[in-house]
TrEMBL record:
Top EC class of this enzyme: oxidoreductase
Pfam family, one: Pyr_redox_2
Designated name of the protein: Ferredoxin--NADP reductase
Species of origin: Paraburkholderia translucens
Keyword entries, A-Z: FAD, Flavoprotein, NADP, Oxidoreductase
């Protein structure tokens, strides 16, 4: 498994592989393993900066009880196990890459492009995009957009960018608390702003934050952000709405961590038949209305679809068998049970 979050070199040739897996949630990760078992090469892209989809973004520490043969494991452990399972196939994973366009060429293969310029040349596409790409929930204030990236941020790519600065972190979830705690070590001042005194973060994070506030290492202010005050295009302060009225809080940078929202986004423009934000598929092979594009996991729509991880595993397994026919139209694939697959045993044995 190779994690790659970098932009491609200019004019880099398209990356040629059998299958492009869109989404590194649990279903996309299992699909990468299954592709290797079947004899297909693949690469994964995900819009987020980390793998795991909903498991990591929404409930990393919650136990899951309905994965076959695993009595109980947290969502984070499941993702770690899935990564370990596909490790022998060394599948490249391109993070922070949202697939934007998809075009079918005259030779039947597909060209897929991401927003940061990666180009793929593939025989089939496996959409394991869940409810769509997760994107940060942004501030609705009109003055936020022109300040975005320089003074208003929705993620923290590098702590060092905030060294010696007066930073406000807004939000009450794990992300907001964890980043506020991390930033207090490099920033001149960190203030956590949340609209109420209660948090949706883990109790341990809340406890650490309160200890840091008591120790004078950071501040915590209850209030909603009513306005951003900038002069000459530079953020100077925030206006906070509180029960007693409005107050002004000096800030050089605002990091708003209000969570993520799913957005089907570009997938909706690819000419697929879509109902209720999900891609219609044929349950014999999970192929969409466009041959060569498959929908598996939560993004798949068919009668009686259950949004369960185990359903997605089954769907991916069948879809990839059909994808094989696109990648190797002249070859007949002979099914071998994994327990009798000597090549697979050797590969997995060597990687363990
Ligand atoms: C709180 C909670 C508890 C749950 N508990 C259980 C449980 O106990 N058991 C169970 O079976 N299921 C459970 N589920 C459901 C389960 O998490 C989902 O069924 C599962 O995550 C679906 O996996 P997926 O890989 O299809 O999609 P996701 O996990 O949603 O991952 C999709 C990925 O695709 C990426 N993506 C989308 N579009 C693009 C694009 N254009 N370009 C690049 N990347 C893109 C997204 O960024 C995301 O990372 C639970 C869900 C929730 C919210």
């Amino acid at each position: 498994m190779t994690l790659d979050a970098n932009a491609p070199a200019p004019h880099a040739p398209p990356i040629r592989t059998d299958v492009l897996i869109v989404g590194a949630g649990p279903v996309g990760l299992f699909a990468a393993f299954e592709a290797g078992v079947i004899g297909l090469t693949c690469q994964i892209v995900d819009a987020l900066e980390r793998v795991g989809g909903q498991c990591i973004e929404l409930y990393p520490d919650k136990p899951i009880y309905d994965i076959p043969a695993i009595t109980s494991c947290t969502a984070r452990e499941l993702v770690e196990r899935l990564l370990a399972q596909c490790k022998p196939f060394d599948v490249p994973i391109h993070l922070e890459q949202r697939v934007e366009t998809l075009e079918q060429r005259d030779d039947g293969r597909w060209t897929a492009r991401t927003q940061h310029g990666l180009v793929f040349d593939v025989a089939a596409i496996l959409l394991a995009g869940g409810n769509g790409a997760f994107v940060p929930q942004k501030l609705t204030l009109a003055e936020a957009a022109p300040l975005e990236k320089r003074y208003v941020h929705y993620s923290v790519p590098r702590l060092a960018d905030f060294a010696g600065k007066n930073v406000v972190v807004a939000g009450g979830g794990d992300s907001a608390l964890d980043w506020a705690l991390a930033l207090r070590k490099v920033a001149a001042r960190v203030t956590l702003v949340h609209r109420r005194a209660g948090f949706s973060a883990a109790d341990s994070s809340v406890e650490r934050m309160r200890r840091a506030v008591d120790a004078g290492e950071m501040d915590f202010v209850v209030g909603g952000i009513a306005a951003l005050n900038a002069k000459d295009g530079v953020l100077r302060s925030l206006t906070l709405r509180q029960i007693g009225g409005e107050v002004e809080l000096e800030a050089e940078h605002l990091i708003a961590l209000y969570g993520l929202v799913a957005d089907l986004g570009p997938i909706a423009q690819w000419g697929l038949t879509i109902h209720g934000g999900r891609v219609d598929v044929d349950t014999s092979n999970y192929e969409s209305s466009r041959p060569g594009i498959f929908g598996v996991g939560d993004i798949a729509n068919y009668p009686n679809k259950q949004k369960l991880i185990l359903s997605g595993f089954h769907e991916a397994s069948l879809a990839l068998r059909k994808a094989y026919a696109y990648a190797y139209p002249d070859k007949k694939r002979v099914h071998v049970h994994s327990s009798y697959d000597a090549k697979l045993a050797e590969k997995i044995g060597a990687a363990c």
